Amino acid sequence: MLRPPAAVVKRPEYNGRQMRVLSAFLLASAAVNASATSSPWTDRRPLAVSGVRVFTSFPAANRTVELRVDVAATYDNPFDPRQVAVDAEVRGPGETRFTQPAFWYVPCVRTADGTDATRSGTGEWRVRFLPPRAGRWTVTVGARDRTGTKRSAPHAVEVAPSEAPGVIGVSPRDARYFEHATGEPYFPVGLNVCWSERKGLKDYDEWFERLGLAGGNWARIWMIYWHLALEGTDANQGYHGAGVYNLVNAWKLDELFRIADRNGINLMLCLDSFNELRDGTGHPAWKSNPYARERGGPLATMRDFWTDREARRLYRQKLRYLVARWGAQPNLFAWEFWNEVDGISRYETNLVAPWHAEMGKELKPLDPYHHLVTTSGGGPRGDPAIWTLPEMDLVQAHAYNLADTAAALSKIVGALRHYGKPVIVGEFGAEVDEGKWIEEGGDQEGVHLATALWAVPLAEAAGTPMIWYWGNYVNRFGLWKHFAAVNRFLRGVDWPGEGFRPVDNARLSFQSPPPGGGYRALRIKPDLTEWGSRQGTVRVGVDGRLEPDHGVSQYLYGDGKPEFRSPLVIKGEFKDAATLRVHVLIVSDRAQLVVTADGTTVFERALVSGKGKGEWKQE
After folding, report:
1. Lesser CB count within 10 Å: N end or C end of the chain?
2. Cα gap 482→445, rounded to integer Å
């Protein structure tokens, strides 16, 4: 989930899930709508392909090699391959041969304070490719516009050997896990760092360094309208509408890949989020979507995105640019089409699943390095119609409000294993509204983080779970230590080669009675949020384990809702004095809270709501 920045700025201050979209932002976006056909880069020169120059100082195997190409052509939009298409034919040892799209590039530099970026030159064509082995490689660049086709002479590149492990994919030895192209196992350890906070790029300098020092090797980044998106509608933020890209944002994403690479971190790049196709309530951003007809785009409605021919063409065009610019990054872990795609307004499987199949079929042959492809839903299970697609390489779960984070996430991973693909927990957290939870002192030691980091890998997950709270939680309270601890245990293990299997019906028990005298708080946290959900019975074991660890409703119903009324029953052997605390958030116009123990009423109180009448706000 997400919350955008609290004002019209490039860098939000907080990284919470609860979004507060200000109408001022949407109105400002509407006022500066850019046409989808306008582009600040045009060319009217006769078609020609001349100099090809290698920028990379020491080309090496499994490392990005970058070249500049001088191309003259006739076009109004360098991102539209119908007007101009520049591609490199790459040949290497052992009859290796593939096509790598070129991309339009504008040089940028960091601002003086290091937080942002600004243009430092004019546009040019670049080629990036990733040679999988050492030896002599040749690059031949072809360009096509409305007048015809031209090709350069082959340009030789001598590639040295390196110890870089290569692109990450599903292991052919065990499809539950990942490994590099060289066969080296890869077990992701990391978290979400989806956007920056107060310090922009300098945030990533700090976060990635700390994650890398802790042994982390994995992070999730979003391309969202306030952070690194290619397309948008606010010209003041460098956007030009649908199909024309923000090249300052593109350069900043280049910089993120560089920062991540020097700290040993691979990035899962999320291309879009549900709120782009959401209106009304619940984090909407449709009013600023460059694909909307009111913003110069092709779509009359949000629903049309999945089927409209022009919208699909524009998305395929964006995929081409993504592969051209970042496909050759050795630390690109995966392409993620959507964040929580089922959070859009009026989700329809019969539209969204075929779209994923179509775009997966487009992306996979376009990407010569075969990076992993995935998407995500807004809950623990996602859409089976998407997960069963052969174009989806790995399955994701997102989960929040868990009474026992480690146990619940382990069960979620187990429930997704039947797809026969690697399973990762792409987001998790103790609370959805973590801002309030953190300020109220919620788990500042990171216990729920630590237990999840240890439990989930041992439940056949393909990586550690990715906590959602980064800058305002993990970094603020110095919780990188938990990543370091689990990394020391995980590293060096050949996960695809070991054939690990979970032990069925395993249970820990005391060999002798536990020492007395110690007490700890046991939290029973509601996980059923639907109106009308009923309570159940929870048993508390002598070891503090809850059986079951789920099935508690956030609602207690009174006489006014007899059809829903059901008590929460807590059973256990409480040999010593125990204290029960009930946290009441909201009451209706009248409520009576009654607690009984073994049939005897031990607490009864009327809860009065309404301003000036009680301490609870009215529903």
Report:
1. C
2. 10
Q: Burial code of 296-317, b = ≥16 C-beta within 10 A, e = fewer?
A: bbbbeebebbbebeebbebbeb
Query: In Å, what is the CA distance from 74 to each residue of 8, 43, 52, 54, 243?
Result: 36, 5, 20, 25, 17
Q: Which phi and psi (to 5°) does residue 201 adopt?
A: -60, -30
pLDDT digits (tens, 9 = 90+) for 219-271: 999 999 999 999 999 999 999 999 999 999 999 999 999 999 999 999 999 99
Which tens digit of pLDDT belongs to each residue from 278-337? 998 878 999 999 999 999 999 999 999 999 999 999 999 999 999 999 999 999 999 999
pTM value is 0.81
Consecutive H or E run containing 572: strand 569-572
In sequence order, the 6+-apart residues with CB closer than 8 A to the CB of 216 are 189, 190, 191, 265, 480, 483, 487
Task: From residue 228, give the alpha-carbon distance in Å to each of 11, 116, 200, 222, 343.
Answer: 10, 11, 11, 7, 21
**Token reading at 24:** 């001022």
Rounding to the nearest 10 degrees, give the CA dihedral for residues 178, 183, 187, 190: -100
CA-CA distance, 11 to 17, in Å (whole number)? 15
For residue 548, is the peptide bond before it cis, meaning its omega torsion is within 30 degrees of 0? yes
